[in-house]
Amino acid sequence: MAQASMAQNASLLDVARAHLYQNYRKPDFMLVEGRGNYVYDTDGRRYLDLCGGIAVNTLGHAHPRLVAAISEQAGRLMHVSNYFYNEPNVRLAERLTRVTGYDRALFCNSGTEAIEALLKLARRYFSSRGNAERYRIIAFKNSFHGRTMGSLAVTGQEGYREGFGPLTGATHVPYGDLDAVKAAMGQDVAGILVEPIQGEGGVIPAPEGFLRGLRDLCDAQGALLLADEVQTGVGRTGRWLAFEHSGVRADAVAVAKGLGGGFPIGAMLCGERLADVLPPGSHGTTFGGNALASAAALTVLEVLEEGLLQEVPAKANLLQTGLKSLQTRYPKLVETVRGQGLLQVLMLQQGVDARAVLEAALKVGLLLTLAGGRGIRFTPALTIANGELEEGLQLLDQVLNAVTSCPTS
Ligand SMILES: *Cc1c(COP(=O)(O)O)cnc(C)c1O
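Above: the input record for the complex with pyridoxal-5'-phosphate. Below: its predicted structure, written as tokens.
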């Protein structure tokens, strides 16, 4: 049995290498099952999941409420297109706008599409007022906003952009530098797009006062403040939106990753002032906000509101304290620890092979991802238990200890 399954597994990996487009680097195993915060591969090996599908699996794996909601909705009504209302979508719009304090939600299927909606909203806002030359977006160096042409044009990292030009319409200035934003401002600027914490860029929180400063600059120029909360939103930092920590409100917000708890769905949220900017026919999507995706997202929001959201700060504190003690134990390996809520990073020192650390973590049964080149990023499900975080910290301690005792290049 075990032999047969291993052989099957090996041949399936061969099939993967032969037929999957090789735009990812993936380790040599196949995950087949997940329960809570553990996933299992074809050989029955268990992994503690502290990456949560990159801040997506808000409720962990196979959460009974989410499984029930999706199963039930799949048997009732999955998709009718956006030519018709569907009930879960309307309930989701109501709930998502209530918890975030916005008025309207436009649904899509991913983070990059939510960003596209923000960009189209900003351009159309001005063009519909007879000001079509006002289209430029100020965005930030080291940002990540997605992979489609529009969202890539605002992404501020050369690694993602290379070879895909021309990518136009955006100006990139250093994150946290209000003077640079001021200098880049002009009558052609439609909006400023900002992540409250740069996620892919290395989990870099906006400096104190930065978001407030952007808000003031936008108000002075009549430009729109656009928040990319694709990674930080839906409870990740302990609030519905990470912007809430600053007391600043963006004019429109993109959310996605954690919204569906693993089911693809994204949304653009805005206030009533922008409700007429995209009239019928101007923007849309076939799948966005379908009944199945909406039922999933609705359940995620319900479970968060029933108490899970409140538990984030204590869990975050345990995680960050643990990571800081690893920094103290391994000062030659760890440069710093930072983040907010359950979005944390352990930045390795320059010269430490982050990919090797990640691979060593896999070997001891720990799933993590990188951010910012040499950051070990933690984005566990919000259902993560204290004991599971402690187990993860212990495993990482083991990994760092092994790295210390056999220094590599
Ligand atoms: C992941 C991410 C995106 C893109 O989302 P996709 O669902 O991968 O298209 C955009 N912005 C931020 C901040 C992200 O973390």
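Notes for the reader.
The two ends are 41 Å apart (CA to CA).
The first helix runs from residue 2 to 19.
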